[in-house]
Each structure stands twice: as C-alpha cells, then as structure tokens.
C-alpha cells in the first residue's frame, strides 16, 4: 500500500505528509509516524492551491463536510467518497445557558450530535476511509470503545466494504449493539482499551492485514484532517468570522489542534476574518482523565499518562497522542484548560438540555462544565463571543443521567388525582 | 384561546380549518373537531396563495422544513418560530437493499432519524408549537410514549417555554430519561397510554390548562400539516419529481395521508411532476397493531380497534384517528398495505443497517419488512422507483435487536489468539 492519492483526485491541495517533530517530508501514503524521529505525520498543503479557494466555491458545495473538499486532502471526486455525508451540523444560540454562567456576549453550541451516527467521528472517518479507498485499501478497521466503532461500521455498510472493529470485551451492551447491527466483523478482545489498541498496532503490520485501513493508525494523518471541518463550519456559520473564544473537549487533543489549524488556514488564505485580538482556544477534560490540563496547570511540557476513570468514557485516553500540540495551541492563543468531575458533568448535561434543547453525551457535559469553570476563574472572558463544541449524543450515554432525572409527578389517571398532585394549580 | 393566527404571519397561505367529514369551515383557531359532525378538522389553503409559490423561493430558503413555509399554515416569520429546525433529512440511495429484495429500479430511504431529536415528530411539533405560540398559548404539552415526548420537551427547552408531558408510569427508563433531561414537568400516569390520552383530553378542557397547547389535541390540525414536509422534501430531493411508489409506516395513519396531500399540492400548483401513471401509496403496520391494514385486506371501511402488542411501540395506536383517510389514499392511488411480525421487524432493521448504514428504530424495521412483503406479493412493482420512510432512530429501541446481534469473534489480546480465532485468514 504505497501508492499515492490517485489521479482522479488530482485537485487535492495536499502536497506531502510532514513530520510534526523534525519536519521530514513523505509522499501521501499510508504512514503515520516519521522514520527519522518517530514523530507524528501531518498533511501539508500546497499554499498556492489553498489560496485559490473562494467563499463562493464553498457556499456552492453540498450541505455537508465535502463543501470544504478544496481544503481537505481527499474527497474532491464525489464518486470516490466513502461517506455518510456528515457535517454542517447546527450552530445553536445559547443565550439562556450563557445567562446562567454570567456570559453576556453571544454563546453558541456547535452541536455535532446531529451527524449521521451522532458524533463528530463521522467527519474523521469519512475523510480517513475516502483516503483509504484511494490508497487501495479494501477493508476498514479501528479500535474503539464506542463512537468510532459505530461510525466505521456504518460507513463500511453504506459503502459495501468489509469492516473489522476491535472493542474491549467488557463494553456496555448498548455500544456493542450500535456497532454489531451494521453486520461487519466485530472482535471482542479480553483486555482494556489499551490492550485492544496494542493488538491493532500488531495486526496492522501483518501480511493478512495489508489490505486493511485502520482509520486511526495507518491512515491517521488523513483521519485527523477531518476535524478541520469543525473549524471551517463554525467560521462560515458566523458569516466567515473566527469566534473570539472556543471551548473544545480533549481526548487525544487532536480535535483542538485541528480546529485551531482550520482557523489559521482560513485567515491565511483570506476566507475568514480573525477577531481583533486573535482567537483563544480552551481545552476541556474530565477529572478522571486530565493529563493535558494537568501539564498546563503545572507549567510543564511533560504530559504524564494516567489510568482513566469516570463517566466521560469517550474522552478517556490516558496517554494523549496530540497532547503536546494541544498545549502549544492553548498557550500560543492565550487560552486555558480545565477539567470537571462526574457530578459536574451530569449537572452540565442537564443545564445544556434545559436551556438549549441539546442533549449531549458525557463529553458535551465535560465541555459545558469546563466553560462554567473558565468563566468563574476569569480565564474565559464573558464579554467575548464563545463557541462550545458538543461532540456527541446523549442517547449514547443515558446511564450518566438516568439516576438524576425522572418524572416530576406521579398520578392516577383522573382529574381528581391530577388536582391532588398540584397539576391544576 | 380563540384568537386567529396573528398579523405577523399574515403571509400564511392557510385560509380556514375545514371538517374532513362534512366540509364545515372554521377560522384558524385552536380546535380539532367539528361542532357539527365531530369529524376531524384539517387546514385548508388559499389556492391562489399556494399557486404563487415557486421552486426558486423554496430553494433559497433554509436547509430545514421552513423552506416550505409558503406551503405551511404557520412559521412564515422566522422570529416567531418555536423550532429545533428539523428537516431536509437525507434521501439515501439503497441499491444493495433493493438487490436483496429483487428491486431493480432506484430504491431510496428517507432517513428521518437525522432530525434533532431523531424522529419525524420534530417536524409536526415545530409546526404545532409555532402555531400554538401564535395563538397565544404559553405552555406546551402532549401525551406520548416516546418520540413525541422527547420532541415536545426539547422544543420547549429551546424556546424557554414551560412544558408538561404525560407518559405511562411503566415506560422504559431510557424513554423517561430522554424526556426528563430537558427539565420540563413530566407526569407519570398509573395506566395505559389510552388512559394517559383520556386524562389529557379532560385536562385540556379545564380552566387551569386554558393556556396549554396539547400538540396532538387542541392544535392537532397544525401539528398534522408538519408531516407534509416529508412529501415536499422527497419530491425536491428527486429533482422536483414525485416518486412512483412510497412505503410509509402507519400509527394514526396521518403521516401517510399528509405525504399524499403534499404530492397532490405540488402537482396542482405546478412545482413537481407526477409520474406517468400517478404515484402509489403503500402503508406499513406491525402484526401487533394492524387495524388499518386488516380493514384493507377485508375490503371494508370499518376499522376495528385492537389492543396493540409487539415491539414496534411507536406505531402502537389501536384506534387510529386517520385510518379511514389512509385507506382512501391507498385505494385511490392503487397502493396496498401489509404488516410484519416482530421477527420480521428485527431482521429488517439488520438488513437496512447492513446495506445502507442507516440504523432505524422498530418503526423503520416495520416499513422495510413490509416493503419486502409487498414485492413478494406482487403488490409493489420492483421495476418502479420507490421511496421508503424511516421515521426514527435505532438508538431509541436498542432492546429490539440487542438479543440478535453481537461480536463475531472473541479473542485474547495477542497475535497468536487472533490467528487461532481465524482473524489472520
């Protein structure tokens, strides 16, 4: 699998894979780490190609992530896409949530639960698998504990391509069902998520898996670029303006860095205006898995891995691959990071639902809870426009709030009973 | 609550409420049954106003149901809407599902699980509550066992309006959570869904509930019109063509009649082309609740109420209010109805997921299973273009398939174990 992106996608603005560590360059192949320094590879673009992209070209595109194909490494040819057509999810005004937190300026929720499998993972999987098919892979795979598994299995089903998804054997039944229903191979591994990941890292090197794209391993550089669309969309939805402040959940930390990269690109090529003082990027973790925020608070570059705990399972990456880059982006833009415990997460899920009608998964609760903390600590300016990213759907983590919400009244089916229960004033 | 639609929405094409039974006309007030004959009221339009609507006007509108505001009774003023902006959900090509059933012509899934609370109810609730606010109501309510409860509670939360939702006390915990999280009043009633409905019918007549719009009771005529958007969208997504065949799930039967009404309107006002031989409307029920299909099969107009059973709970209306009108539409267009049992529903959910990447709730399983039966019995022509409506999300009815899907392999986390399990060929 060493072919480059094929001629049918020749209008891709991608130029090379570039090592984030030493700057070494590689062709656009299936590779995720540098042979020189073992640093992670990232897609680099032809600046002239990006500079030719216009707002009109994007606005004339489809109502999904592919409107940004001129800024992505792959997917320029619609017939070659492997996709559920995610994206262009709602940017929801949240004035009553803002009021509860003392935020006067406009507050927005970017609600990515509206994607086809109800998480932002559909964005990265669509880009990864489109790249993978272009590179000649004929089977799709991932290691996951939930959202990514759903998305890969659904994408493979839509495309009619075989898939093999690896999960820890003790995963909740609901998450098993939402992947197994798509009919691909589903491998339950007796071990932790780290064990599953390690096994996938070994399998990807075998001859038998030479035909298989692991979305977050051998095609990871393309996968990661999909997250840029969460930056592009917010800017376009605000009328081609970058918001002054964004609050973003962190697992590997990659999403945060890619939203920042998207903003940087848009400003560089003249598609969007930066706010007068620049934008500030804020990161959110849970108290049960806060290695990046802890490093920031300690003023160090050294991220000490943790063994994750707590209800925000979709953010539970104890050894975050892009943590150092997230730290860099937050420090460079004058942002901050914080973390929230399980009770704060549950409370934030309810506040968000009550004030906006958006029912978020635990990761969204983390982000809203951290928003409140950032205002309280003075790190986030309540007089500046802020966008908060909700990356997933409450239906997938019902257990998180099942114990704390329920009926407000219980009555027999009669007017008298309703009156006695106080329903008639 | 007898005020008519206010002046701010004067561009509404709605003219009157008209009795479906005797044709008596009423102003656009909060009323759902005829004083003369007790027949159901339906919104009637000013034909000249509808005739002025153009494709360009619709195509320039927002990417949601409100692009069709010129054809709806309310919502012309964006600032007066009570809405989560549902609609413009994907029309997914399903060639591999078609091949499994021997369908050669194009087959499409209209996937309404993509709405904000993941069912088609967001469409009807947005129209009902926008009308309700225009009519002066200050509280929103419904009786429901699931999707409608979620949608009303979420809409009220977004709008910052109090809500009170009535549910049977023995409802599944998951459905309670997905309504309670939005923070409105949630009344658990010790009784069946019919008991809950009856109680709401009594409450709506009390002075204490004079300020309260029950979406499917006192503002039902407006509520029902929201379903027309599922017809408009399919026609627009097909390039302003009416499909030759549509298969639609039936609970009250109202959705089927409104899709047919939407097609009729579009052809009458010249916005869409009808197929050469007209369109044919097919209705789907479950074997556990099939009163409309049973009447059709028996060749009678008399719909005998049933006590619903089976897993397709969102379709379990034993005494369907619009059943007679559904029969009329199916007979007039040369369609048919059929029903599927629980095993067939489960199998259809899996087939749909495996071949399209769409994970449907049980109602979607009913519709796909009935599609297969209609082809097998020769009632539906496999050589004609067909659209199948999926009205809800598989995440809400996980239990339906939890027993029949699961991991395909189980291994220890080692290459050797993977090889022994056959994963390496």
From TrEMBL, chains A, B:
SUPFAM superfamilies: Tryptophan synthase beta subunit-like PLP-dependent enzymes
Top class in the EC scheme: lyase
One Pfam family this sequence matches: PALP
Ranges where the Tryptophan synthase beta chain-like PALP domain occurs: 83-392
GO molecular function: threonine synthase activity
Chain segments annotated as transmembrane: none
InterPro entries: Ser/Thr_Dehydratase, Thr_synthase-like, TrpB-like_PALP, TrpB-like_PALP_sf
Entry keyword set: Lyase, Pyridoxal phosphate
EC number, as in UniProt: 4.2.3.1
Record's keyword annotation contains RNA-binding: no
CDD domains linked: Thr-synth_1
Required cofactor(s): pyridoxal 5'-phosphate
Family, as annotated: Belongs to the threonine synthase family.
Designated name of the protein: Threonine synthase
Organism this protein belongs to: Plantactinospora siamensis
Source organism phylogeny: Bacteria, Bacillati, Actinomycetota, Actinomycetes, Micromonosporales
Gene: thrC
